[in-house]
Amino acid sequence: MNKIYIIGVLSLALFSCSKSFLEKAPKSNANVQAFYKTAADMEVALNAAYATLTTLGQYTQAVWQVGEVRSDNTSNYEYGGNLSQAELDQFKESTSNAIYNSMWLDTYHGILLCNVVLDRIEPVEMDANLKKQFTGEALFLRALMYFNLVRTFGDIPLVLKETTSVQEGYDQGRIAVDQVYEQIIADLKEAESSLPASYSGANIGRATSGAAKSILGKVYLTTQDFPAAANKLKEVVDGSAYVLLPNYADLWKPENKNNAESIFEVQYKKGGTGTGSSFNDQMAPGESGTYVTGMGFASGRNLPTPDLIAAYEAGDIRKDASLAETYDADGVTVYNPYTLKFKDISFAASDNDNNWPVIRYADVMLMYAEALNEVNSGPNAIAYSMVDQVRDRAGLAPLAGSLSKADFAAAVAHERQVELAFEGHRWFDLVRTGKAVEVMNAHFAGTITIQPFQLVCPIPQTEININPSVIVQNTGY
């Protein structure tokens, strides 16, 4: 099979909303109805779904803007005006915010492409095991995309078939969160039983059974089904497919992507082919020019806050591997903190090799500890072991013994904050644990007050304008 970042998004006659830089039509420009006839055709369609993960509305920007910048961990360079990034950072979003608009469009475009595969693959004559795998991959991707949407917007349209007419689109109203999660869980259960445990060669980076199990464990944790979360995450831990890399800093070297700790990453590749990542430029400090990037525009996104910098314990080696507080500008030291996790030597502006880590083993270990603490009304030896292994790699002492359930939960939350900093998890963790309003109001210290309705984001106004009879705005916006 072809490496998934090489294949562009298949041009479809309807609903081709994505602006992905990977978007390319098949050279034959084949008729859509006549195209899905062979295993190779289905691979192209599936790779197109993978490619949407690299759009601005998914992991190239929107997912981590919501997951990290909306939290107390990071901020954007802009602090005023009507810029979408500033609005999101300061909880002043308009319903026309471009980040949410692109997230909605690009993610539903990805879901459409998953549905194309699922709807059209059954009659294709191809190897039965490969058909099962392709189906599992499409289900995994659809579940991941819906997971990002439902956590961001709340009730959303749940589209499970390829949309082939405008009228079908008008009939797709918002569905309750619980029903969306039921479908996500069903998709992931089928995916985990259909996917291989690993790949080799050019197929590395595709969804695996371990990835399906890990995301399913996170879904169960999010829906507060703690016994199911503990059981599913235990399967990942006991499966021995993943290990912590000995050196935390090695996680962020582009040459180490898809490493032994990686469970699922969005794939990028630099080299002037339009498949590189832009994180090196996006996360360089504002006003730093090319002092940090080497080339390209420093956008000042996903910058560490004073709260995050202070959260690292003395001696935590993750701090220096994750962020820098200064940069050199022709011999002048400038204090302007920024993330180091996505640094790379650019091939060209916004053309780098960094993948995006959707989920890795340390995340699973900490979630498992959290779930066990809930199931047992306090931590057991396994829960302590999960956290202490992560802390040991960071150069830190084990947690104090005999912690209460509440104190252990706080310790896990702290560990997740610094272990997974900049990776798009903090906001969703705060919402999931019921701490978002409290933590964010303390973070803003009276300068901004957030309200419970802001735990979900505004539905793009364009979607409401197109279909006001079935798409209504979230309360408060």
Give the H and E element order.
HHHEHHHEHEHHHEHEHHEEEHHHHHH
The number of domains: 3
Total helical elements = 19
Computed Rg: 22 Å
Q: Just name the CATH architecture of the largest domain.
A: Alpha Horseshoe
Distance between the termini: 46 Å
Helix coverage percent: 40-55%
CATH class of the largest domain: Mainly Alpha
Class derived from helix and strand content: mainly alpha
Shape: globular
Total DSSP E strands: 8
Main sheet summary: 2 strands, antiparallel
Low-pLDDT stretches are 5-30
Named CATH topology of the largest domain: Serine Threonine Protein Phosphatase 5, Tetratricopeptide repeat
The proportion of strand residues reads 5-15%
Strand order of the largest sheet: 1-5
Mean pLDDT: 92
Name its key features.
single chain; 477 residues; mainly alpha; Serine Threonine Protein Phosphatase 5, Tetratricopeptide repeat; 3 domains; two-stranded antiparallel ribbon; two-stranded antiparallel sheet
Question: What can you see in these coordinates?
Answer:
This protein is mostly helical and 477 residues long. It folds into three domains: 1-207 and 445-477, Serine Threonine Protein Phosphatase 5, Tetratricopeptide repeat (Alpha Horseshoe); 225-267 and 359-435, Alpha Horseshoe (Serine Threonine Protein Phosphatase 5, Tetratricopeptide repeat); 279-354, no CATH class. Helices cover 44% and strands 7% of the residues. It is built from 19 helices and eight strands. It has helices spanning 32-35, 39-51, 62-69, 84-89, 98-120, 128-153, 166-170, 177-194, 209-222, 226-238, 279-282, 306-311, 318-322, 361-375, 381-393, 405-419, 426-432, 436-444, 461-466, and strands spanning 74-75, 156-157, 174-175, 262-266, 303-304, 323-329, 332-339, 356-360. The protein has a two-stranded antiparallel ribbon. Strands 2-3 form a two-stranded antiparallel ribbon. Helix 2 (39-51) packs antiparallel against helix 5. The longest helix has 26 residues, at 128-153. It is globular. The protein starts with 31 loop residues before the first helix and ends in an 11-residue tail after the last helix. Residues 5-30 have low confidence and may be disordered.
